[in-house]
Amino acid sequence: MKRNIEKYDFKALGQAIKEARNAKGMSRNQLADIMNIAPRYIASIENSGQHPSLQIFYELVTILDVSVDQFFFPDKEAKKSSLRRQLESLIDEMDSKDLVIMTATAKGIKEAKSEERTEN
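That's the Helix-turn-helix transcriptional regulator sequence above. Prediction below.
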């Protein structure tokens, strides 16, 4: 007996992959070279919502640090968003001087938010 199932709409996840790729400063050609696939395949995933194979899907989300929880479990809050994963990936590449700057920046943002709350 054939099951009647709704096909997953991959467009939102494809868009997240595109945004993550752009955030990392990668072209489709660069990503395609890393993955040894055609750039057109990546374009189809990003723009048309083409369903990739499980292996390609896994490589895309791991290379680009995309959190998929928000797409597969929309009612649950993701432990780490794609943005947080991408930021952590950038931080992992920094040396101790860079981390001092990042820490000061984060503290400055936190203090500014705290002051904003007390003013309101």
